[in-house]
Amino acid sequence: MNSPQLQRLVTGFLNTTTASVSDALDRRGIRGFMSHEIKPRTVSRKIAGIAVTIREVPSTERQPPLRAIEAIDSAPAGAVIVIGVDNGADVAVWGGLMTAAALARGLAGAILDGGVRDVAEIRRDYDFPVYARSIVPSTTVGRYVAIEHDVVVVCGGVRVAPGDIVLGDDDGVVVVPAAVAEGVLQEALSIDAREAQMAQELREGRRFMEVFEKYARI
Ligand SMILES: O=C([O-])CC(=O)C(=O)O
Ligand SMILES: [Mg+2]
């Protein structure tokens, strides 16, 4: 996908919501929403971008997260880092230094199946959105190691391939497979438009059942 096309898609997704995108994916039989435990942990700001993935696995060897560092250094501006890790809630796969590097590269955010640390520093100095399973002080070193990047990972119970679009807002995170991104965006925008009309009629005092029956959806 070329860059102006991608930019248009990303801007489009920023104009919709995870709720509408989740509904649009449901209609295609695709589960896009991550576990409710993956929440905004630093700043509460909507993010959308292509996924740059990192996979971490348990390891008692005391190794720095070299594959994660490589992934951050090589990610294109606007991308969102997605880290897949099993049972990672008690380990911080992201922190202040990774945030400093990601922000300097123009990355849009990070989505972690594990924990984040240095949260006070990130909130104070970086204004960088991190969606994570937990906030926890423990390092990965001696517990987990990043073994590869730019591979399919599972994050928050959802498969994420490099290049998929990830959208995060106050409701959580949704993953949109690249192959259906355009159609899902159009459908989500039309769900939003219909809901805006419904909300308007409800605010004007029409009975909820009447509005529901007219639009045949909630
Ligand atoms: O050590 C780590 O893996 C994460 C961390 O604290 C940082 O990026 O500052
Ligand atoms: Mg740190």
Write the layout of secondary structure elements.
Elements: H1 3-14, H2 18-27, E1 39-40, E2 47-58, H3 66-74, E3 80-94, H4 96-104, E4 109-116, H5 119-125, E5 130-132, E6 134-135, E7 144-149, E8 153-155, E9 158-160, E10 165-169, E11 172-176, H6 181-203, H7 208-215
Parallel strand pairs: 2-3, 3-4, 4-5, 4-6
Antiparallel strand pairs: 1-5, 2-7, 2-10, 8-9, 10-11
The chain binds oxaloacetate ion and magnesium ion.
What's the architecture, going by CATH? Answer: 3-Layer(bba) Sandwich
Quaternary state reads single chain
CATH class: Alpha Beta
Tally of distinct domains: 1
Which superfamily, in CATH terms, is the homologous superfamily? Ribonuclease E inhibitor RraA/RraA-like
Strand content: 25-35%
Q: Helical stretch count?
A: 7
> What is the CATH T-level topology?
Glucose Oxidase, domain 1
**Main beta sheet:** 9 strands, mixed
Q: Rounded to an integer, what's the Rg over CA atoms? A: 18 Å
Pfam families: RraA-like
InterPro entries: RraA/RraA-like, RraA/RraA-like_sf
Protein name: Putative 4-hydroxy-4-methyl-2-oxoglutarate aldolase
Subunit structure: Homotrimer.
Task: Please characterize this protein's 3D structure.
This protein has 218 residues and is α/β, with parallel strands linked by helices. It has one domain: Glucose Oxidase, domain 1. 36% of the residues lie in helices and 29% in strands. It has seven helices and eleven strands. The strands form two sheets. Strands 1, 2, 3, 4, 5, 6, 7, 10 and 11 form a nine-stranded mixed β-sheet that branches. 44% of the residues are buried. The mean pLDDT is 96. The structure holds oxaloacetate ion and magnesium ion (MG). The site of magnesium ion has 4 residues, from helix 4. This is Putative 4-hydroxy-4-methyl-2-oxoglutarate aldolase. It comes from Carboxydichorda subterranea. Homotrimer.
